Amino acid sequence: QSQTPAYGNLRKGYFASLKKIQELCKKDKTPLYLFTSWGRRDGDKQNIKVAPTYEKMQSMLDEAFAEGAKKYKMTPLPTNKLWRAIMEQDQNLGKALYKNDGSHPSTKGAYLVALSLYCTLENLSPDKVSFSGDLSPSEQKLVKSLAQKVFK
Which of 4, 6, 15, 147 is positioned for an S-S bond with 126, CB 3.0–4.6 A? Predict the structure, then answer.
């Protein structure tokens, strides 16, 4: 959920949830990974004064993810970083990562999420992944090139 970690008035509850997860997993030493999400394509229309653009919302999310990962000893997954890299590198592909609502991922956005999870959890280089979803060859090349940089 992209609003909860982004906003100061909701962030407290987000961190409380991370703390509960950490406590549940302490006993068996389960490695903890923190899912990182993306800002809304056109900013958050419900909170337009605070997050008027994707960039502003993403920065607020990134701040919360970094703080939460450090405080609760979690490894952040690089989904947010790959999403940002695509948004900065190719505006058309960046827009195509979203469904029409500008919030939820399209199949191309879901591919980024899956690639981030799979490569991180399996310690696999993005260029070793043969599945490309519905990305065109040029989109696939760009995504894997940026993923290679971001996943280091």
Answer: 147
